[in-house]
Amino acid sequence: MLTRFKIAVGGVAETSDEKAPILFYVNPDETEKKFLINSYKLDEHTLNSALDPDESSRLEWEPEHAALIFKRPTNLSGRDQLLFKAATTGVFLFSDRLIIVMADDACLFENKLFSKVSSLSDIVLRLLFRSIFHFLEHLKVINMMSEELEQKINQSMENRYLIHLFTLEKSLVYYLNAINSNNVLIEKIKLNAAKLGFNQEQLEFLDDMIVESTQCLKQAEIYSNILASLMDARVSIVSNNLNVLMKTLNIITISIMVPTLVVSIFSMNVTIPLAPLHFAFWIIMLLALGSTTVFLLFWWRRK
User: Fold this and answer.
1) What is the largest CA-CA distance in the chain?
2) Is 133 in the same domain as 268?
3) Is 99 in the same domain as 213?
4) Are residue 106 and residue 150 in the same domain, yes or no?
């Protein structure tokens, strides 16, 4: 699917002009791929890399354009089951045209970052910057979800909360790889800033982007280390909760068996001392209740 955009006053606006400088392709079909390869001389391997979620970020130079492949987080859906994934975006920068290729649709230019763009290279930098903040937002969500799961694990013996926690830990591994890959790409862009034609303002923006990306990487590492280091402790908590439950069940079982023993003794088919008494039944019930009380007091004093 193709959507065309143009640089307008106040940001980037959608347009129907066939000569629009910004072309946004979402999951292009074979016909659109052939058109891009033949008309704009895009490398077929690089184009396919833009649609591959496992592709690493990189910068490549073609005769008439620069190709940037970078990572971005995908929106979480119900079928993901708390698994946060990273997708790939391909950006092909020409002197007068910008082609963006993605495997799934996303609202690219609805952020205020794009309100003051004046060139195609500005848009490229802001796309990368938006990806960094998107990762930061997802990291905050992962941290909130992990704290909520920790509270549930402390009170529960179900495996599903541990499985959710393992899933979040797996998500952080994916995010670490994606953020680190983007870091390498941004450093490479800075080294080739002159070749890309960046001005002084764009270079300063690129420096700010490097700082934010580094902080994003460190934050992801901290969250990942915390989850990994405390995972064994949380497994032990679940195991301890199960032991406490089993102990409680054993106490209840034994407390039921004690009065049963007392009643069983007086139910034997032999002569018993209390047989002539009119209140023998209630005396036996009191003895059974008393034995249960003594047993519970014993365990209570043993804590």
Assistant:
1) 113
2) no
3) yes
4) yes
